[in-house]
Amino acid sequence: MTVNRPAEDKEGIARVRQDRSAYSEDGVDLTLVRWMLSLKPAERLQVLQQHVRAILRLRHDNPHL
Amino acid sequence: MTIPTYDFVTLLQTFAEHQVDLIVVGGVCAVLHGAPINTFDLDLVHSRAPDNLERLLGALQALDARYRDPAGRKLRPQLSHLASTGHQLLTGTAGPFDLLGTIGTGLGYPDLLQHTVELQVGPGLHVRVLDLAKLIEIKEQLGRDKDRAVLPILRRTLEEKLRGGDPDR
Q1: Mean pLDDT of B99-121
Q2: Closest residue of B to A54, CA-based?
């Protein structure tokens, strides 16, 4: 299914995708780094905990993979 | 097949309740500093002082800790194991964790203490965590593939923290 977005949305998305400051020279996604840094340490640990549980659930639900 | 338990907060809470002196290192340490990585390891460098080892044994008992043994035997760590510089790869009711006598170039708890910060990781729960610069230094020294793979993210995280004046670095 194709989603038709207004022209200004497409331009905005294109700008974000071309924003070189989103990545470091060695390819690290700085938007993720900045998002994690916006959280408190306890929240960062919760993020990790949720990721680990999600991965384990995916593995559990797809034992053939 | 059941989904294994991974509960980092319960592990850290249990060690705190037993007043165990330890330092969080490795991947969880990196995450607590804001690095966007995933890890299944909780790596801890514990003080090998005799009184701390006694408290540690109490915490391990509460966690029903045993070695991660593929054969499924319930082998429990003894005081002599915990007093060594070696690595004890354990699991228990709150999931797996590693107790490390030393890391890097033979650095133990007293060597690392000056390179730590205390962070709040839950309500009333504070843990001592290796600072990010020292974690990077140790991983650079080790130079294993798994350390090199994560180094760019750790370095950029430290840069962003320094740029933003993050108080918990």
Answers
A1: 98
A2: B3
- The nearest CA of chain A is from the CA of B79 a distance in Å of 30
Phi, psi for B36 (deg, rounded to 5): -80, 75
| B97 beta partners | B90
Q: Does residue B66 contact residue B44 with C-beta atoms inside 8 Å?
A: no
pTM tops 0.80: yes
Indicate if the alpha-carbon torsion angle B40, B89, B149, A24 is positive or negative.
Answer: positive
**Contact between residue B43 and residue B27 where contact means Cβ atoms under 8 Å apart:** yes
Each residue of A10-65: pLDDT tens digit? Answer: 777 666 666 658 899 998 999 999 999 999 999 999 999 999 999 988 988 888 87
Let me know if domain B8-163 sits in CATH 3.40.1350.10: no
Contact B129, B32 (CB under 8 A): yes
Q: Which of B95, B144, B69 is nearest to A52 (CA)?
A: B95
Residue B121 has pLDDT above 70, yes or no: yes
The 10s digit of each residue's pLDDT in B30-89 is: 999 999 999 998 999 999 999 999 999 999 999 999 999 999 899 999 999 999 999 999
B165 reaches A (C-beta below 8 A): no
Distance from CA of A20 to the nearest CA of B (A): 15
Domain-wise residue ranges, chain A:
7-61
Which tokens go with A17? 């995708």
Nearest to B10, CA basis, from A57, A49, A55, A59: A49
Q: In whole angstroms, give the CA distance from residue B7 to residue A56.
A: 12
